[in-house]
Fold these 2 entries.
Entry 1:
Amino acid sequence: MARKIHEDALGVAGAETIIGTGVKLKGNLITESDLVIDGRLEGNITAAGNVSVGVNAHITGDISGVNVSVAGELHGNISAQNEASILATGQVRGNISAGGLAIASGGIFIGQSQMEAPGTTEPTTEPEAGESEQP
Amino acid sequence: MYYYIVNPAAGRGQIKNLQDKIRSRLDELGIRGEWVKTTGPGEAGRIATAAVDKGHTTIVAVGGDDTVNEVINGVHQDNVAIGIIPLGLHNRVAGQLGIITWQQACEALAARRVTPFSLIAAGQKFFLSTLTLGFETELDKQVDTAETKLRGRIRQFTETFGHAENFRPLHCKIEVDEKFTMESDIFTLAISNQKFLNPLADNRLIVTMSEKPAHRFGVGRYAWQSLRRRGTTILEDTATTRFLARRVVIETTPASGIMVDGKVAGRTPIAIRLTDRRVKFITEKIIADFKGALNKNLPDNR
């Protein structure tokens, strides 16, 4: 029985924030952990960990996190300390500032991107002008 | 000196048969103390308050979760440690603190290893363990959860499954830390102090919400789990939404009852917050050691 308690305890230790499919959020979401969101949000996300935007997610607002991956729909800007990635089902309409950027085939990105080395604030490359979209 | 508050009705009165053995063991361990029996619901809290006022610094609840929660609400000073000898039908709080049997409880009391926890307030009531809302809240009205024999258990499951299938999700609006609001149709919602679930974690409310499973298999699995755990715990593996907070205000349509450790404790709308009120609990050795070993690697463990 004692062993079971420890399993329960450790199960919560990695307590990432999860917002499920049927949830509608309004306001700014600030979390000290990783965040997985698959619902609708009108507001900004500030996460101390990684942010994963699920395939059912629809977000109107900016996202800031360590790594940000988007499989759903985002109308807003991304600021990622490390990498921002747009997955095959992802759509981003906004600007991206990140250490690295990956766009999967099928992913949509309309906006400007700016690459920054992790831990710096100065851009290492010139920002792209205009819009880019990958079919 | 230890002060024992005994609920003679707990666990269908099993204290009658165990009282002499327990007191004898407490004698051997040198922690006999005062032994006071309650005479009705709510009295454990009043007795605890009086005992603390008299200067007792170790209050032991002898009974189940109801007795423990009454004692928690009666202890109003933070220099007091609360111990538990679990003799109730539902001993969720003791179990989570690593205390399963009365023998083990006596050893833990003698060792007096304490862990402080911030209490949660739901309206005017304080609690340590888990608040639930939704499907499980209604469960006790529909199903006799005290049944223990196999045939009874099968009937319980059948009734619980039926109740789960027919349960209409509650439309729930939650204001979180006055920063954002969320809306969802929920099947069940549970709130606990994450430190209660994981002694290494900070004191924060952990809120989990589940939507109604889409398939009958999912409903059946949920019904089985909630029955097994008697609606007093967070069913993490079925949760679709989980977040940390310090204060939440919950409204539901229609209004619904809330349960604390399996007992109805209020109705929505209700504000639930993590308080500054900390209570020290006497915990089982293995949890204290487990925590101690891992503490060495943690810079900050509040």
Entry 2:
Amino acid sequence: MRAKLLLSAGLLLLAAIAAPGALADNGGFTPVDPASPNADGIRDSFLFVSIFVVAIFVLVEALLVAFVFRYRRRLRPRFEDGVQIHGATKLKLELLWTAFPVVVLFLIGAFVFVELPGITNVPSAGASGQLEVRVTGRQFYWQYEYPNGVIAVDTLRAPAGVPVRLEVTSPDDDVIHSWWIPALGGKIDAIPGTVNETWFEAEQSGVYTGQCAELCGVEHAKMLASVEVMPEDEFEAWLAARRTEQTAGTSELGEEEWAGVCAKCHGLAGEGGIGTRLAGSIVLADPDAVENVVRNGRRTMPAVGSGWTDEQIQALTTYLQENPPSG
Amino acid sequence: MASRAEAHAPAWQRGKVASWLVTTDHKRIGILYIGTALAFFVLAGLMALAMRLQLAQANADVLSADRYNELVTIHGTAMVFLVVVPILAGFGNFLVPLMIGVRDVAFPRLNALSYWLFAFGGAVLMLSFFATGGAAKAGWTAYPPLSTEGAGNGQDLWILSLYLVAAASLACAINFLVTIHNMRTRGMTWARMPLFVWSIALYAWLLVVILPVLSAGLTLLLLDRGISFGPWEVQTHFFDAAEGGAPLLYQHAFWFFGHPAVYVIVLPAMGIISEVLPVFARKPIFSYRAIAVSTVAIGAISMLAWGQHLFAAGLPYSLQAFFMVSSMVIAVPTGVKIFTWLATLWRGNLSLDTPMLFALGFLSLFVLGGLTGIYLAAFPIDWQVHDTYFVVAHFHYTLFGGVMFAIFAGLFYWWPKMFGRLLDEKLGKWQFCLLFVGFNLAFFPQHLVGLDGMVRRIYTYSNESWEGYNLASTIGSYVMGLAILLFLVNVVRTSRSGPRVGNDPWQADTLEWYTTSPPPPHNFEAVPYVTSARPLYDLRRRLREKSGFREL
């Protein structure tokens, strides 16, 4: 009776735990579907470890449940002694469960070392070479610098099928962030004064999302990042066009800066939030005042644009003059 | 209560409250530790419930970002420094002298000092919510530069609180060490010492080694934040990259403390399990030596594994490989413990009373917490799961599913020794069931949502596919809250009416059950000569042989 009750309670619990997984769109027990060879390697390692984790988990829980049912007191006197195991059986068992984990851990370690080069080493460049992008984590946005000087915020455009090397860092006056796009590999911290490296090579076009993984302050939760992968020729065209537009001051950079740098605290329409309400503010109409606040911060607002080039500042001030936030 | 005030104390010290304020009795101090830690447990638990409410839905608006970051920081700090570490110090204080058959710890007044330092340190942390700028917001790990740039006094009070608590722990640890090394009763060699005392010895050794490193890190942090004393101002740049400092230096110092701190917490919890399982299985532990040796091994290796928390920080691969191996090596003695406990159940005569239920709950949950640790130790996998809810689930399986379940096992087991009365078994079993179900509902889905990319310490999210997991998690956390409420009801209800069950209700094996419940101020009239790790078992057997009496 009690056993049945326990069993049904256990099944209910399992169902309750599994339910949200079934409701979620990818409800799986594995990392996000990889879209880059390094993420592949990590997923394979995850699956390999899971073989042992699941086996050991089931073994231990099964033994535990079996022993509890088999050896519970029932009609025996409460304080009657159980049977102690001595001698050769005991020795054999102890050797077994000391040696067994050693073997399992050795296998796991070996597998990880075999997979490691595929995860860490950037594939040698193909015909079209590699792309190098500098990724700077800042409170609370990601800034990307392409070799030709093009700058973008939060959305990184990248060519499909080309290895992309990322130099990840954070300015000296900022805090630690962590770069992570789950489908494109593991995370790497953006640390002031240090340049860390990682890479990805997206096989297919698409948008891959992620977010800052190291608590970096009040809007840490809003520090989203995405990688927009497009066919290589399309990417090259975008990069060249963006270069020209950026010089001319007609690029989308200003809009990206407003959405990525300002709006996370002040609201997309300047309606205010963690930051003050900007809609209708006279400061926004004055490019010098905007530059001053952005470069130096103000009261609790960090200097979000310290170290920006004049191009970056101008992109923002022009955008604000053309699109004053309406509240 | 645990013990009467001493008859020769001045009149003002004999009052009901005053006698607790001035006490140097290890049993009273132990109970003070446990009671205070449980109060902090309730507070930090309420913080968790508030956070779960905020996360139950995407884009929720229950807490502001700043408030959420404060709660995340204080919940974590309090649960580690004000709940599990001191509650285990409380068990150690109450039990160690009784278990090794002595009158008190080596330095009773240092012991009282250590309790009061802890209590004040805890009060500082909790009251820091009212400081200028609110409580600390940089997480329980307080990584600079985030923790050095924060305006207001919350972070400074956080540092002060940890100084006080660290000083308390250090005094407490030295006390345990001197007591255990020098004062064991006649016949109690190291190999006859209760396994819980072994675990407290390692708890103390680890604290003595790691606390100074934490304090050094905190001092550098404080100096980097800047201090002024009269006309003098000090502002250093240890962690400030702009001035040539290294932000990562702090992380090494913190985790050199923080990683072994996990084992500081887990080892005594395992010690409780090693005491409870044999008594309720009516068998000696399957292998005393294996448990003792693995306790020492885990403690020693844990000091070489701190780097696993820095895998995503870009350490050289050779170093990451070293820390992977050192982290994995800990799994071997941990596995030995788990199988030794299982074998202790094998062919036993199991009584499924509440302490035993919690001990079995520990076994079933801790296994998963340990196994998910393998993913974190394998550094390429850690790059994927680091700082996600997968990690949150992992350490709650070890620290709540493991340690808190062991603590409840210990509370239900030793309650009659502390207060002379049994806690209510029926309420206890309900509490266990609710806590077990609520815990799994709260934390199992977090593995999955973490794998799906949800990072930790975010006050909100907009990804709607994470909502199901989070809602389940929130419901589970409130079921856990209900279970804790049942425990409090149990304590209040049985404080006057609980059954008195005599000196040794469980027919246990260790010396604390030889004296009365609660024990007198000086613990023992006489202590039997200890001839094995189970002195009371030996005593009962000798009595039986002498009198021909067979008990049922």
